[in-house]
Design brief:
Blueprint lengths: L2 H14 L2 H26 L5 H14 L10
Helix pairs in contact: 2-3
Length: about 70
């Protein structure tokens, strides 16, 4: 499949989704991005504990505009 055809198909599929499905997808993609960032932080700072990784992740997200700050209990 050519890239333009794939993009058209992807857009059609997104349009077929309900608003709730699109939000669920966005949240899944956000969590995937956070997991990748956590892995990068762990690689960069191997001695950092889980709380430190979350703190560094929140700092990075804050630098990205503060739109995606994590709130963990």
């Amino acid at each position: 499949m050519k890239p333009d055809a794939a993009l058209d198909l992807q857009i059609r599929r997104y349009r077929e989704m309900t608003g709730e499905q699109r939000i669920d997808l966005a949240l899944e993609l956000h969590e995937l991005a956070c997991e990748i960032a956590r892995a990068g932080i762990k690689n960069q700072y191997p001695a950092t504990d889980a709380a430190g990784i979350e703190r560094l992740l929140n700092q990075r997200l804050s630098l990205a505009g503060g739109l995606f700050r994590l709130v963990k209990p």
